[in-house]
Amino acid sequence: MYWRILARLIAGIFLMAIAALVAHADDLMSPAMPAADVKARLGTPQAPLMVDLRTPPEFAIAHLPGAVNIPVSELEKRLDETRPDEGQDLLIYCLNGSRTRQAEPLLYAHDINSFYHLEGELEGWLQKNYPFEKGGVPRKTW
């Protein structure tokens, strides 16, 4: 009896460990845009429309220079703000890929099929000591 309980406990821990390994930014559906490419394009006409999917308080702490804040919870009602200008790429990101993963199917379902995610997400950007902003204007239309 105790062996069954122990076996189920070990199996549960094993499954949670596998889920944790699988659930990272490498399994995103959209193509990755390398952080170095994004950094090189900042402040140029080739800069992508960068959408930060985190909450406004998280956005205020640190975000990519020039990014707009559209929390994933508001994305469906603010899809018009995700449409880049002609010839401009759309780049979505969050801290570690979890909200990017939530946003991708929603964008695809609304025929927004050409977009990228930030390779390494914001965590990777900050680890590389790339520039970031604090505070800022959270909406594209402001």
In short:
With 142 residues, the chain is α/β, with parallel strands linked by helices. The chain is 37% helix and 11% strand.
Kindly state the number of beta strands. 5
Give me the Rg, rounded.
Answer: 18 Å
Question: Unreliable stretches, pLDDT < 50, 5 or more residues?
Answer: 14-25
Separation, N- and C-terminal Cα atoms: 64 Å
Query: How much beta, percentage-wise?
Result: 5-15%
How do the helices and strands follow one another from N- to C-terminus?
A: HEHEHEEHEH
CATH architecture: 3-Layer(aba) Sandwich
Shape: globular
CATH topology description: Oxidized Rhodanese, domain 1
Estimate the helix proportion, in percent: 25-40%
Highest-level CATH class: Alpha Beta
Report the oligomer: single chain
SS element count, helices = 5
Largest sheet: 5 strands, parallel
The neighbouring-strand order within the major sheet is 1-5-4-2-3
The named CATH superfamily: Rhodanese-like domain
